[in-house]
Design goal:
single chain; 451 residues; alpha+beta; 5-stranded antiparallel β-sheet; 14 helices; 15 strands
């Protein structure tokens, strides 16, 4: 029979075990309490590092955005350089014009908000006494424009070098006549156009054209927009040419500077799909009767440049940003730099080499075809102005159109968009479609307050 421990000893062993277990538990609890502050401290350190990292990242990205925006602004907006160059030439007696004194001496012609989209073409809002206008200036060595996809000025040896000293008024008239003939082609009334140009060149209206005035006029005459403003100066939808100094000129201000759409920060523009962007643009438009009135104005402008008094002009960028309207919802052109004389375009395309139709494009919307046998572009444009205008107006007019005319309106717009070429046989159909569209729209809005 095995020996058993005394009863007292067994009690002591239980006590010892309990004490040991209590001591171990106490140690574990103490260790946990010691470890908890360390865990919390490590957690706080991690959060602090994370916070500092994201703060640094936000500062870095923000600084980069500010830098890019500032660099873009400084590159695009160089109005002070343009003014400095113009006024330096004016003070030296090289150039003169109706706006020179106000810009360079009296300081009554101010450059306001920068609207430039390209460094070579400076555009600013401006105020000239009581007049609100838009100031445009060319940042190039010379103002000779060639037909090209980007329509940037081609730099030459000197600025304001023509006409030269000693050129008579008669010789200057011959220069103007020859230049206009090359631009708009042979016209029966070309002398009348030359007279219009010379009347604009006389900036101070004293009946004489000085050499500095002639230099300014010659520089401006190289620009399609100025030439078109002179030709269409009596037309409702063309902004008025208010004044000039060298190649800087002031035009009438257009209150609303886009046919439709809204301006968004460039970062948002990067992330918005093009389809959604087009839909968003259509949300921010006037009421339908007002859109109809604006559209009628665009159709009337197409009439103005289609076989007008001094030849035919082609609209080579029919985008919404080039059309605006005033507070009465009358269409006003905002940018006419890509409206070019048909004669000039035909001549330029005839000399252009090509391998496919895609090589025969000027601007965004003036396309001809490629003659693969000759490897040359053909001179005839594929689409007339009216077809391009109807394409620009399709979504604009159909969205919100009254149900009773929607089907007929859509039918006429698609007929208009199907027009091809500028041949003589197309002229009757062109005129018929244009008049039908205007009549349909006028009938619907003629009895509304928006008309």
């Amino acid at each position: 029979m095995p020996l058993s421990a005394p009863h007292g000893c067994r009690k002591r062993k239980v006590y010892v075990v309990r004490c040991a277990i209590f001591a171990m538990a106490k140690g574990l609890i103490s260790w946990a309490w010691l470890k908890k502050p360390y865990y919390i401290q490590a957690r706080i350190s991690y959060l602090r590092v994370k916070y500092l990292f994201f703060t640094w990242l936000a500062v870095f990205v923000g600084s980069w955005v500010v830098y890019v925006q500032y660099s873009s602004y400084m590159e695009l907006c160089r109005g002070h350089q343009c003014k400095s160059t113009i006024c330096d030439k004016y003070r030296k007696g090289v150039i003169d014009g109706s706006a020179c004194s106000s810009l360079c001496e009296k300081d009554t012609l101010y450059l306001g908000k920068c609207l430039s989209t390209k460094p070579n073409n400076q555009v600013y809002t401006g105020s000239w006494g009581d007049l609100e206008g838009v100031v445009k200036c060319q940042m190039g060595d010379v103002l000779h424009y060639e037909l090209g996809a980007e329509m940037e000025p081609r730099k030459e040896a000197a600025l304001f070098d023509k006409p030269t000293k000693g050129t008579s008024v008669e010789k200057f008239k011959e220069m103007v006549f020859s230049h206009l003939k090359a631009k708009v082609g042979e016209q029966a009334n070309l002398l009348d156009l030359a007279s219009l140009v010379l009347s604009v060149a006389d900036g101070n209206k004293d009946g004489h054209i000085s050499l500095p005035e002639a230099k300014s006029a010659w520089a401006l005459l190289q620009l399609n927009e100025v030439l078109l403003m002179i030709i269409l100066q009596d037309k409702e939808h063309t902004p008025k040419l208010l004044g000039f100094c060298g190649d800087l000129y002031v035009t009438e201000k257009v209150q609303y500077t886009s046919l439709y759409g809204m301006s968004l920060p460039w970062l948002l523009e990067l992330w918005i799909p093009s389809g959604l962007r087009r839909s968003m643009d259509q949300w921010f438009t006037p009421s339908w009767p007002r859109k109809a009135k604006i559209s009628i104005g665009l159709l009337e402008f197409v009439e103005d440049v289609f076989h007008g008094t001094f030849g035919n002009f082609l609209m080579c960028d029919v985008s919404a940003a080039n059309f605006g309207y005033n507070d009465k919802h009358d269409l006003k052109m905002v940018d006419m730099r890509r409206i070019v004389p048909e004669a000039s375009l035909r001549e330029a395309m005839r000399d252009r080499r090509c391998g496919e139709d895609g090589d025969c494009v000027f601007g965004a919307d003036c396309r001809t075809s490629c003659d693969l046998t000759k490897r040359r572009c053909t001179p005839e444009v594929v689409q007339p102005n009216l077809a391009k205008a109807c394409l620009a107006l399709k979504d604009y007019l159909l969205r919100g159109a009254p149900s009773e005319i929607r089907e007929e309106l859509e039918k006429q717009l698609y007929s208009c968009m199907a027009l091809k070429g500028t041949s003589d046989q197309m002229e009757m159909e062109h005129s018929l479609i244009l008049n039908n569209l205007k009549t349909l729209l006028w009938k619907k809005i003629s009895y509304t307050k928006d008309s």
